[in-house]
Design goal:
Length: 188
Amino acid sequence: IIHLPGLRGNPRRTYPKTAGGPTYQGTFESYVASVIAEWQAPGGEKRLNDLARSLETMALTWKVKAEPVDDTQVELKVGRLTHARRGGAHDLVSIADVGFGVSQSLPVLVALLAARPGQLVYLEQPEIHLHPLAQRRLAKVLLDAVGRDVVTVVETHSAMLLREIQTLIATGDLNKDDVALHWLSRND
């Protein structure tokens, strides 16, 4: 199980190096920077490109890079722009210097891409700190995970995300047999 809680912490200037998988003890957010650093090594390019594509789909950024600070720490840098532009590869800033939605969404996207087929990813409020368009586009990222046979359980408060999932089913982009939606309410 890959578990990502709703409270994922504040963005930091540096992150401690951790194991890069394939198993993750505890909650997943502490592994994100190291997993990205591992994907930058030969053999991980596809996942890194898939991550960049997901970030761009959600209109958050187009690039993420893990730079080693020393033997024990990694700094996460992201593009300030939402899409690639000439010279944009040199326009990277610390994840602590961009919108909070990027730092909260990055662990969600990395968890979905790090999961192996058949593995369960449990996401609490993946829509936290995202504008409505990004919440809708998150549904497409979840659809991609389903297409890779990743079992995903999502706890959400986002009507935008739920409606987009329903739209994907209605348009035939998502098989209704691959989804179960449950509405819960508290009672006495």
